Amino acid sequence: MERGSVIKNLTKQQSCHNISGMSINEIETAIKELPVEQVAVLMKWIEDYHARIWDEQIADDFESGKLDELLAEVEEEYLAGLSQEI
After folding, report:
1. Average pLDDT, rounded, for the chain
2. What is the C-alpha separation between 31 and 42, in angstroms, rounded?
3. 3-class secondary structure, 67
4. Which residues contact residue 1 at a Cβ distance below 8 angstroms, ignoring those fewer than 6 apart?
5. What's the CA gap between 20 and 35, in Å, rounded?
6. Degrees (nearest 5) of the Cα angle 52, 23, 31?
7. pLDDT at 1 over 90
8. What pLDDT does residue 10 have?
9. Which one, of 44, 47, 1, 46, lies nearest residue 27 by Cα?
10. Which of these, 5, 7, 13, 8, lies nearest to 30 by C-alpha position?
11. DSSP of 3-32, one letter per residue?
């Protein structure tokens, strides 16, 4: 089953409520009612979504200058020869 249809089924199980209006407890209950295969698809979707949110936050922080001090410190340590290959 595709990821999008899992989310649609999840919301249908809650009497067609909009998921944004659902409480965490309601979402947890709906997830517990999903077949195992759908839970796996949902987990993958959540992982992908979380990664996308994280990437956007890093990009926003970089563009806003929030990382400038940290990046300057990293560059200083690199130029001083304090870095190691991973």
Report:
1. 87
2. 9
3. coil
4. 9, 37, 38, 41
5. 22
6. 70
7. no
8. 57
9. 46
10. 13
11. HHHHHHHHHHTTTT--GGGS-HHHHHHHHH
Residue 18: partners with Cβ closer than 8 Å, 6 or more residues away: 11
pLDDT (0 to 100) of residue 19: 72
17 contacts 11 by C-beta, under 8 angstroms: yes
Contact 9, 42 (CB under 8 A): no
Distance CA 39, CA 16 (A): 19
Tens digits of residue pLDDT in 4-39: 665 666 555 544 446 778 899 999 999 999 999 999
Instruction: Report the candidate in 84, 73, 4 with the shortest Cα–Cα distance to residue 38.
Output: 4
Beta carbons of 77 and 83 less than 8 angstroms apart: yes
